[in-house]
Amino acid sequence: MTIEGERSIPTTRCPTARQLSAAGHRVVGIDLSPSMVTLAREHVPGAEFHRLDIADLRGGRLGGPGSFDGIVAYFSLLMLPRAEIPYALGLLHDLLRPEGLLALSMVEADVDDFTIPFLGNSIRVSGYLRDDLRRVVHDAGFDVVGEDAYAYAPASTDVPPEIQLFLHLRRA
Ligand SMILES: C[S@@+](CC[C@H](N)C(=O)[O-])C[C@H]1O[C@@H](n2cnc3c(N)ncnc32)[C@H](O)[C@@H]1O
Prior knowledge:
Layout: E1 8-11, H1 14-22, E2 26-31, H2 34-43, E3 48-51, E4 68-74, H3 85-95, E5 96-107, E6 114-118, E7 121-125, H4 130-139, E8 142-152, E9 162-171
Parallel strand pairs: 1-2, 2-3, 4-5
Antiparallel strand pairs: 5-9, 6-7, 8-9
Bound molecules: S-adenosylmethionine (SAM).
């Protein structure tokens, strides 16, 4: 993915934020979790992080319509119920400049607000099969310009690998 200039790029967490910040981009990150925001600030001091619900991106909290060149949402929208995902994608769409880029990752799974164990806790997750995910992002106003899929399983467990989908999207 190519991101131009030194304009704004929001993201939700650290390794990607660190790379983008080190490359000279202005990086603005959000997360609902205060501890994630604290960690992000520690790991990427050159970026700006806010504790914010993605649903509160409306109303110009981080910038007006079209104010971002690119957005990264890695495994964050999967924590929303399906009913809220198109709305969240719509908010991200409106924050991007025309032809702005969205890097989106999700786990491929046909589930809606489904409880799973995660790091000793329970979390609720949603997902789509890949054709359905392509349709959801298309309906939210994005063109799919690239796509990768990886099988991933933590080394510490013997659960079957999950399929992680990475969509490279452009605001249509
Ligand atoms: C599975 S983690 C992924 C974290 C990171 N992006 C990564 O790839 O490692 C999902 C993150 O989304 C955040 N999150 C969940 N719901 C959110 C919401 N409504 N608004 C903002 N962040 C949210 C969680 O706090 C969590 O840090």
